[in-house]
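ARCHIVE CARD
CATEGORY: sequence design from structure
SOURCE FIELD: tokenized fold
FIELD CONTENT:
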């Protein structure tokens, strides 16, 4: 996918490895997007543009081993990825950000928020994995197959490019980390405004689990985006940008009159 002409590429070293992020500049707080297992910030590019057009400072970071970032040795470990996000925020000079995770990225940002709360002003969890009722490779594969018809066909080549760039071992390792992590045990310790977002046709994240995730968050709410599967940032970027803008305004994380649209979240 072509990056927007207004999107900046920013590279910051973390632990002697380059971490690459893409930015659509705007007013604070920064909204930092963290991608799912095996993929990269490519999945966030449509959303990045939409949020940037609303005047918000929008970022999408490639985790180590994925996308354009460096390739550290060894398989990905969720705790290390979360620490890298916190270290990258410090190195990039970003304070009190809103972390937005997509799929496995939700697990990374929740871990970061629990252990590095000083860096986080709020959380947006888009399609949070893994539903505790379906923790297992076979069940997740079946749900992925059922969800696929609800995604845009144009996303398939992006995912294939991401898997190629990361390599088979790293992709499998990321999916393994997602299955081992118990996000449900950490959600009660996120003491920040939080929004769970689910695509109405998401077969990876059923409504029951999305509602439970929002309930477990001390300051959590749920928003459902119509006509979308699991990958809401790619399929419905405008609607997601409206939802996030409304969330920022509701919690005093955006200036008044910022053009936020949509109902209360």
């Amino acid at each position: 996918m072509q990056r927007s002409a207004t999107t900046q590429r920013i590279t910051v070293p973390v632990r002697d490895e380059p971490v690459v992020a893409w930015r659509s500049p705007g007013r604070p707080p920064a909204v930092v997007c963290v991608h799912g297992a095996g993929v990269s910030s490519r999945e966030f590019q449509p959303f990045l543009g939409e949020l940037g057009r609303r005047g918000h400072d929008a970022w999408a970071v490639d985790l180590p081993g994925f996308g354009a970032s460096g390739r550290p040795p060894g398989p990905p470990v969720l705790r290390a990825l979360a620490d890298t996000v916190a270290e990258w925020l410090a190195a990039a000079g970003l304070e009190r950000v809103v972390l937005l995770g997509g799929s496995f990225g939700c697990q990374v940002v929740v871990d970061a928020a629990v252990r590095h709360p000083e860096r986080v002003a709020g959380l947006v969890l888009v399609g949070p994995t893994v539903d505790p009722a379906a923790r297992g490779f076979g069940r997740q594969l079946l749900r992925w197959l059922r969800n696929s018809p609800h995604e845009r066909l144009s996303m398939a080549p992006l995912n294939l490019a991401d898997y190629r760039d990361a390599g088979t071992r790293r992709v499998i390792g990321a999916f393994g980390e997602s299955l081992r992590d118990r996000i449900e045990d950490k959600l009660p310790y996120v003491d920040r405004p939080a929004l769970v977002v689910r695509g109405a046709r998401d077969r990876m994240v059923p409504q029951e689990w999305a509602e439970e995730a929002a309930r477990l968050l001390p300051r959590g709410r749920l928003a459902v985006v119509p006509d979308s599967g699991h990958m809401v940032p790619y399929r419905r970027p405008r609607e997601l940008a409206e939802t996030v803008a409304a969330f920022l305004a509701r919690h005093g994380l955006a200036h008044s009159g910022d053009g936020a649209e949509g109902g209360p979240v």
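CARD ANNOTATION: The chain has a mean pLDDT of 91. Residues 78-91 form the longest helix (14 residues).
SHELF: design records, drawer C
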